[in-house]
Amino acid sequence: MLGLNTSCTVMNFSLIPN
């Protein structure tokens, strides 16, 4: 579960850089 969460977070940051 943690692995999936990390992947989602990384993808989100890459798609929507703050």
Overall morphology:
rod-shaped
Number of strands: 0
Q: Give helix and strand order, one letter per element, not per position.
A: H
Q: Could you name the ranges where pLDDT drops below 50 across 5 or more consecutive residues? A: none
Main beta-sheet annotation: none
Helix content: over 70%
Strand content: under 5%
What Rg do the Cα atoms give? Answer: 8 Å
Number of helices: 1
Distance between the termini: 25 Å
Quickly give the structural class: mainly alpha
Mean pLDDT: 67
Describe this structure in words.
The model has no long low-confidence stretch (mean pLDDT 67). The radius of gyration is 8 Å and the shape is rod-shaped. It is built from one helix and no strands. The termini are far apart. With 18 residues, it is an all-alpha fold.
Task: Annotate the secondary structure layout.
Blueprint: H1 2-15
Question: Main attributes?
Answer:
18 residues; mainly alpha; rod-shaped; 78% helix
How would you summarize what this structure contains?
The protein is an all-alpha fold.
